Amino acid sequence: MTRILVTGATGAVGANVIHELRARGADVRAFVRDPRAAAAKLGDVELVPGDFDDPASLRRALHGVDRVYVSAADGPRKVAHETAVIDAAAEEGVDRIVKLSAMHAEESSALPAFRWHGEVEAHLRRSGLAAVVLRPAFFMTNLLMVAGGVAHTGLLHAPTAGRRIAMIDIRDVAAVAAATLVAETLPGRSYDLTGPAAITFADVAAALGDATGRPVRSVDLTEEEARPRFEGADVPDWLGTHLAGVFGVIRAGGFERTTDQVRALTGRPARDISGFARDFAAAFTPQGAPA
Ligand SMILES: NC(=O)c1ccc[n+]([C@@H]2O[C@H](COP(=O)([O-])OP(=O)(O)OC[C@H]3O[C@@H](n4cnc5c(N)ncnc54)[C@H](OP(=O)(O)O)[C@@H]3O)[C@@H](O)[C@H]2O)c1
């Protein structure tokens, strides 16, 4: 049976990849830093302790593995972490890598996370390994970052200039990852992944209003008005720069294109914003949101 190693297994997408692989009856192993915390989050799955900064732990985890899901946290160590997995996988003779990347990944990007993904994709091409690269659009779960504001004010602020975004549910990203990990044969290529429709933040506000039973109104900010929200946010500088840049891409129409890859690769339609809003409604209400 094909054995699959999932890195970033406790991550938001990674935990859903584990869930999807187990639902498909796959032989799964999770690479985790803290087995106790991972067991509480992931349930009954084989756990292999290790750290991307410890190459010996990666080689141990990869022993006897056929396919690998590669995803490390965004941040200044991302390229080092993901290239370490790729190099160890090449040494151990793994026959397929599935890498979680991002739409607009580019080595020359001014947006830190898109640049890091571009650098890892280039490393993967140079490795000669058979690889599938998943390039999802904007995640619906990004909306959770402003859930408290929505819950307490009924307002959804964003500098989108009214443009549409083909946002995607991470559960669909995970389903595609699982499908491409277990597929018997697959052309080595990149897939741009989106939700079923390109929608505005006014559409998002309407869906959140319907799901919570409380009115939600979207307020479009100018780039100038939004700048303090990114610069003043309690996040690392690179993330403030990246988030501001993502909204620049949105205002330029860079997330308006939809693709049918979720359906093509999983056989199921991609989830829409109404389903996301219903499933996460509690986070957008005063009872469920952080103060
Ligand atoms: N947000 C968007 O709109 C969007 C769009 C397209 C693509 N993406 C991409 O999606 C990816 C995010 O995936 P995700 O949400 O699953 O990730 P995540 O929630 O950030 O999780 C990161 C994972 O990496 C693990 N990790 C961190 N440092 C480690 C180390 N030194 N050794 C071993 N494991 C380590 C973490 O384990 P611990 O539990 O031990 O911390 C966790 O499992 C990013 O690459 C992002 O660029 C995002």
TrEMBL record:
Domain (NmrA-like) ranges: 3-226
Pfam family, one: NmrA
Identification of the protein by name: NAD(P)-dependent oxidoreductase
Organism: Dactylosporangium siamense
UniProt lineage: Bacteria, Bacillati, Actinomycetota, Actinomycetes, Micromonosporales
